[in-house]
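Re-running the complex after MR caught last week's input typo. The corrected sequence lines follow. Everything else is unchanged.
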Amino acid sequence: MIKLENINKTFRVAKRQGGFARAVKALFSREYEIIHALNNVSFTINDGEMVGYIGPNGAGKSTTIKIMCGILTPDNGICEIDGRTPWLERVAHVQHIGVVFGQRSQLWWDVPVVDSFELIKDIYKVDSSLYQTNLDELTELLDLSELLKTPTRSLSLGQRMRCEIAASLLHSPKILFLDEPTIGLDAVSKIAVRQFIKKINAERKTTVILTTHDMQDIEALTERILLIGKGKILLDGNLAELKKHSSERKTLIVEYTGKAPTISEGMTVSEAKDGRLIIVLDPTQLSVSEAISQLAAQSDLIDVSVTGVSSEEMVAALYEEYSI
Amino acid sequence: MKKYLAVFRIRFINALQYRAAAAAGVATQFAWGFLEIFAFSAFYRANPNAFPMEFSHTVSYIWLQQAFLALFMMWFWESDVTEAIEGGAIAYELIRPMDLYKRWFAQSCANRSARALLRCAPILLIAFIVPKPYRMGLPPSLPQFTMFVISSALSLGVVVATSMLAYVSIFYTLSSTGIRSVFTTIVGFLAGEYIPIPFFPPSIRAIAELLPFAAMQNMPLRIYSGNIAGRDALWGLAFQVFWLSLLIVLGRLAMNRALKRVVVQGG
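Corrected-run output:
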């Protein structure tokens, strides 16, 4: 179980205006700015949960992850993971966690991937038979058989990310931290990675904590969402609750032939082209079926599609709502 | 212990990949070695008795220094470590169940020995066949050679332990450029990289011989030729053990302090 209580973390950042004169001045006296990266962050995550940790850039996502991994020491507050305080018992703690930092690599650049895996096996003292089982399973699920003998430097980003994820699971960790695991991946690789994460969570009961900017990751993967902004937890709930915070409005895309329909109360045209209308509908004023029958009565409709607010818009709206 | 050996192993393999760099290194070391030996030989010709080391000892000193450059030279920086601190890759090193000091120590030793292994053979081969008096001599006795081997290992330890202190400072300065140039010049000079310590003026030499830098290449390179022999050589080994232990203790303390305030650069 993961428990954070009132975690605070500040960074001191040297600041100066651009330009030569200011740079010279900064040689003698520096101005520092205190950045509150985390402000009384508290939450609890149970074993086997899959949690999406979202927020804009600089919100404190990675800082929280790094505190939970034992890399950073917070200014104050309590963090207990399976009974241990990560930064005090770092070595014992990290034995049981797996981490993927999407922007960095844990594989040795110039040697075949399998050499890096062997090193990880030795570092975590993974039993040979367990290592072999895990390696076989991961090789199959992530389709690594062709990649294992290739040096890391020759892998594409998607191939490398699959290897990175495998590397973080060789020692059967109880908790998996994924810091932007799908960053820079193409659609196919993203789907493969998502399916895999889902499987690991379901089959091994691994607790997964995932940070991402990709709303599709969140929609595909997580039941529970933690929204952080400016170092504060703003929302802790599931996707449906998150959706409640944003409007119910629907978007209708209508294609028609002949004359354009007239628009009644409750609908607003956001875009009109020849034979194509994009209408924003407020369902509290006019139901979707009513709107469609009104339109159909006036024009010959070729195609109608109805969409709700996308998760991306939703989160953007939330960011705005909390002004972060 | 096994995990640190595993790190040693992979760093060693990784460093063995750079064959072209090694070939270029060998060529440079030859040129440099000959240049130095010719310069010294000119001085010796002027007055052979004015020098604190026999010419043959100096020749062996220079050839060994060039052959095992990667083991002993202070300017040989472990860029994996400095880049990890400067660029934030340290995050991945801290999520391993390992002691970071031991890990970096193993990594540095591996890198240095792999590179030395790649470069030493051609240099030693040529150094043993060039005409006298530029030819490298054999060690005077087997015990002397054994002491040379032990002293080389200790010397590598002292060099790595000293660089470790420099690496820790990067946690505070966030840049390795400054500390690197200071270390390269001052430590390099006091370690006898440019000229052997016996060539220093007496007063400076007296101080330099007590400093930890004298426990670096100064010891093995002089023990090899018998410039430091017998009981003196044993004392030399003890001197190296003393500085190695002290530097490791200091390095570990400094590193533990630094890790409490570590900031991972670059998000």
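None of the earlier attempt is carried over here. Chain B is about 75% helix and 0% strand. The mean pLDDT of chain B is 91.
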